[in-house]
Amino acid sequence: MSVTARPFGATREGTPVTLFRLENPSGAYVQVLDYGAILQAVAVPDREGRLRDVCLGFDTPAEYQEKHEGYLGALVGRCANRIRGARFQLGGRPHALAANQPPNHLHGGNRGFDQYLWDHRIEGDSLVLTRLSPAGEEGYPGALQTQVRYTFGPDNALLLEFQAVSDADTVVNLTSHAYWNLNGHGAGDVGGHTLSIDAIAFTELGEDNCPTGTLVSVVGTPFDLRSPRALSDGWNADHPQIRQGGGYDHNWALRGSGLREAAVLHAPESGITLALSTTQPGLQVYTANFLPESTGKGGAVYGRRRGVALEAQGFPNAVNQPEFPSTVLKAGETYHQEILFAFTHD
Ligand code: BGC
């Protein structure tokens, strides 16, 4: 195993950015930036043993800055997904957040964790990125010390371990917003990929794209992914919730607890499979329904449905829905969550 660092240009403001490559003895590797703790590349073998980079990304920091609204590979925080009306109550006090997707708050606000430079250290086979989010940032109470540890194993499994501590009660929901295309990051739409999710219910979307609070059974709907289903089958389905999201843009309520396998994505063409395990209660699946057409790494064409984000996280708007698993972090307590992306091929 090796972790190496090299310069990755500079932000528009002139701050140098570093790219870290975590490579295993087989030559498979992942690349992570200290800017935004962004997952910039994941190169794993297909069924011919050829490496394919299956993670969408850009070649320069400026592109990440200009196109940040796609959240490519981003480490999303302080609170992933939507908070209705960009407000919540905590300890009897109202808190107003940045309404960056009016009227809601999305993915941490105008300048989320994906748009800051993180501190880094290399610890053995791992890259550890840390960031202190000051009290009041984007409207959140409490200074939050955040850490994410990236570890890439000899078995082509990438582990993300999230940790955070706040000096006041706050809301925390960290996730990775990597988009996957298991045929290669520039290989076109992902309609032929199959996806299964270990869930019997999903959170219904209201007209404001926040959950209504109702958990709907997946049985008899395009959301039944207990057996693998082609993504195009889902996004072409005639179902009011698919119309509301423009495809899949929903949170599945995962079964079980602790680190357990939650979803399996497979590309029949390349033979590559991604099995996602997580400690989180929810999995937001976003089939890039609104990803604008743009040029990605090496001139690749990205856009609508040319990748799928599998965002293991707390339920959207949980802070305003007492019946959802809590995303509140009490002062002095430690937030800990894990996501494991394990790559194999047939
Ligand atoms: C959300 C989408 C949003 C996208 C932005 C996803 O996580 O679920 O609704 O448009 O992020 O890139």
UniProtKB/TrEMBL annotation:
State where beta-D-galactose binds. Answer: N81, R82, H177, A178, Y179, D249
Give the CC-aspect GO terms: cytoplasm
Q: Which reaction does it catalyse?
A: alpha-D-glucose = beta-D-glucose
- E.C. numbers: 5.1.3.3
Which pathway features in its UniProt record? Carbohydrate metabolism; hexose metabolism
Keyword list, A-Z: Carbohydrate metabolism, Isomerase
Give a GO molecular function annotation for the protein. Answer: aldose 1-epimerase activity
Q: Which N-terminal stretch is annotated as signal sequence? A: none
- Pfam families, from UniProt? Aldose_epim (PF01263)
Q: Which domain of life is it from?
A: Bacteria
Show the InterPro entries listed in the entry: Aldose_1-epimerase, Aldose_1/G6P_1-epimerase, Gal_mutarotase_sf_dom, Galactose_mutarotase-like, GH-type_carb-bd
- The active site consists of H177, E311
**Any one of the GO BP annotations:** galactose catabolic process via UDP-galactose, Leloir pathway
The family note in this entry says: Belongs to the aldose epimerase family.
Q: What is this protein called?
A: Aldose 1-epimerase
Which classification does the entry list for the species?
Bacteria, Bacillati, Bacillota, Clostridia, Eubacteriales
